[in-house]
Amino acid sequence: MSFFSDPARIPENYGLRVAAGLMVYFIAMRLLHLDHQVELRLLNLFILMGGIYFGLKRFKETHGKDLGYFRALITGVSIGAIGSVVFAFFMFVFMKVDDSLMQSIIANEPMGRYLNAYMASFIIALEGVFSSLLVTFVLINYVATDEAGN
C-alpha cells in the first residue's frame, strides 16, 4: 500500500497536498509579481479548506462511515498543521535564499522591522494552525459526524 492510499496516513497525505497547493499558489503569485499583496493571503484559506474537507471526506469513506466529532477535529487540525508547517519551512528556505522578499516585508509592513526569516516562518505556521482549527470547526458541521459521546 502506498503512502497516498494508506487510510492511516490521511492527515499526512492531505497535509502535504495542502502544502503543495500553498507552494504552487505562492510561486504563481511571485511570478505574477503579486507577492507583495498581503490581502491575497486570504485565498490560502480556500486551499486549506479544500484540503481539510477532502481529507475528512476520505477519512469517512475509508473508515466505514464512522467519523466521530473529536476524531474529525483531530484529523482536520492535523491536516492543516502538517500543511502549514511544511509551507512555513518552504517559506523559511525561500526567504533565506531570496532575501528580497524579507527586505520587502521589513520595509513595507508596520511591524516588519522586528521580523526576520525565523519569526516570519513561525508566524506563518502559527497562523496556519489556528486557521485550520477554525476551518475544521466549521467544516465538521458540513461533514456528517457521529455524536460526540460515541
Short synopsis of the structure:
Helices cover 69% and strands 0% of the residues.
In words, what does this structure look like?
The chain is mainly α. The protein has one domain. The protein has five helices and no strands. The radius of gyration is 17 Å and the shape is elongated. It starts with 9 loop residues before the first helix and ends in an 11-residue tail after the last helix. The model has no long low-confidence stretch (mean pLDDT 86).
Uncertain runs are none
Query: Helical content, roughly?
Result: 55-70%
The end-to-end span amounts to 30 Å
Strand content: under 5%
The shape is elongated
Task: Count the DSSP helices.
Answer: 5
List keywords for this structure.
single chain, 5 helices, mainly alpha
Secondary structure: elements and pairs:
Blueprint: H1 10-31, H2 44-62, H3 69-97, H4 99-108, H5 117-139
Helix pairs in contact: 1-2, 1-3, 2-3, 2-5, 3-4, 3-5
